[in-house]
Specification:
alpha+beta, Bifunctional nuclease domain, 5 helices, 33% helix
Length: 151
């Protein structure tokens, strides 16, 4: 796996006209994944560890996972097809009998929310990382003007 994926982080969140721009990347490159406005807000809440009055959907998922002894191992943003990103959620369940790892197709926004909430690693496939446009300069300009939220 080491050579097939690149570790990344959420580097910034910026409200946009049609949703929210998540800047994902590392020191080498940053790219943008557009998500629904509420998903951007939820991911931002997890990044800031904002307390919530009631559990949100991703909190509920985490509680169900915990109840069944399931942990999020990592998430991988795998490809870009027809302007849509695809991702995989890697879960592990361990008990006294065995260890089971399950890989699930999921929206990148859900994967990023769960990974952020549980402080789990985020990866991008190497092929996708080479393919995406570098938006580092855009993020730097946003950070200079103070119009976005960064981690």
């Amino acid at each position: 796996m080491k050579n097939d994926v690149v570790p990344v982080q959420i580097r910034g969140i910026l409200p946009a006209n049609s949703g929210c721009a998540l800047f994902v990347g590392n020191d080498e490159k940053v790219f943008v994944i557009n998500v629904e406005p509420n998903m951007g807000a939820i991911i931002g809440m997890f990044l800031r560890e904002t307390p919530k009055e009631r559990p949100l959907t991703h909190d509920l998922m985490q509680n169900v996972f915990k109840g069944f002894g399931i942990t999020v191992e990592r998430v991988i943003i795998t490809e870009l097809r027809n302007s849509t990103y695809f991702a995989r959620l890697i879960l592990q369940q361990q008990n006294e009998l065995a260890r089971k790892v399950v890989e699930i197709d999921a929206r990148p926004s859900d994967c990023l929310a769960l990974a952020t909430a549980q402080k789990r690693p985020i990866y991008v496939s190497s092929a996708l990382f080479e393919q995406v446009e570098d938006m580092s300069e855009v993020l730097d300009r946003i950070n200079e003007t103070g119009t976005g939220e960064t981690e």
